[in-house]
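tool_call: predict_structure(chain=1)
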Amino acid sequence: MIEGILLIVSGPSGVGKGTVCRYLMSIRETVKLSISTTTRSPRPAEKEGVEYHYTSLPRFKEMIEEGAFLEWAVVHDHYYGTGLGAVQSSLSRGEELILEIDVQGAVQVIEKIPEAVSIFLAPPSLEALEARISGRGTESAEKINRRLATARQEMKSYYLYDYIIVNDKVENAAELISAVIDAEKCRVSRGARPPGWGGEST
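tool_result:
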């Protein structure tokens, strides 16, 4: 059996990672989304175990000490982490698992798991990204400015990834990610071989 595929979908704050991943799962039922743990409070309409697992800062720090995370990072004063055990279980079942994470976390996973497939989701332009972040309407002007500054820095990390996909339209971006998964499943290095072929190449 071909091993599962660990797919990192990352990019600057406000680029639409969550929206693209949700659409991808609606058109590709085999894709699973890794649910991260965070210390921030849920936003309106967010639910425990759907968008995130929500926990306290003391408990999060305990989990770090326990080695419970594949990666973790502090973003805008809140902690975010990906559970190691859940990722290992998913990959052992041969699943297509998405890590929808920030750039800090993505860099950690790329270093730890070189075979992971990394995608940098980019905005059509910096102006479009600024409009999206400002248009959320859930944060103060100070926090918006901090997010914009961070996003500009995160954009400089695109070269660390395997692929770059522009989120000009959610449907287009999701379909391109699906195509990347199909291509990766055909890699000989992942164990792909002709139907019925049981031997090694000679």
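agent: The chain has one domain: 5-190. Proceeding to next step.
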